[in-house]
Design brief:
By secondary structure, the protein is mainly alpha-helical. Helix content is 75%, strand content 1%.
Amino acid sequence: MPPAPPALSARAWIDLILLGGIWGASFLSIKLALEEIPVLTLVAHRVVWAAVILWVYVLWRGERAPLTGRIWGAFLVMGLLNNVVPFTLMAWGQQFIETGLTSIFNAGTAVFGVLVAALLFRDEPLTARRTIGVLTAFAGVVLAIGPQNLAQFDIRSLAQLAVIGGTLSYALAAAWARVRLAHLAPHVAAGGMLTASALLMVPLAWIVDGAPAVPARPVTLVAIAYFAVPGTAWAFLLYYRIIATAGSGNAMLVTLLIPPVAIALGAGVLHERLAPNAFLGFAILALGLLILNGTIRAGRRRGGPPRDS
């Protein structure tokens, strides 16, 4: 029976809230940048500048980049799964759906993570608690999509599926990192992953979108700077610090803090309005994530410890 996550310290809560705010605002910055620059160019900006920042941090710490071809091959796959595919799918989808709704679907990453881990790793079985959590969370995702969008297929439906596809890619990336990159310091792994992503995205964006032009709108420059530096580079460092101090189970709670920020900013800045089913879907999704996290237990024995199988 997997243990419940440890109690969060005040420092861990501060880090979680800060990370939730950073990532929640990233959805707004991406939406604003998409008004002027195309999707692939946006993703290229995001990974290039974030990689630069992370390598500066690695060098400042006096560490060196790994040089073996095997590790850089692992970085290439990780960059594809954790950056190139999800960043592209989510940015494309966000052109057609609300900022807040994108962040709600993003919260489903943990659900796919549990399923992928259960399929690939013997030490992470799909126990009774996890099964209940997954089913509850999936019900929330379906409700957030909306029955009407399931019945009729249009560009909005495709955009929602694209965002959900991005969360599945994140889950596959987590499994790949466990197998291939667990021996590396997190900031080195993140720097290598983002560098490999940049090597893929820069030529792809140049071929598809053409040579990048300097954005004419100052807000676009600010948006690029935000989602590349605090929204990606700093956020990765903060996320790994939370995992180190509070555990991966507690780190998953950040996915519950991101949507309220993204929804509020989307409403306040972009005047977006979500349908009631989106809010109800998020509430059910949050319940499923709390069950998966162990904060809410699937059941208890009388006079005994929580039951997980």
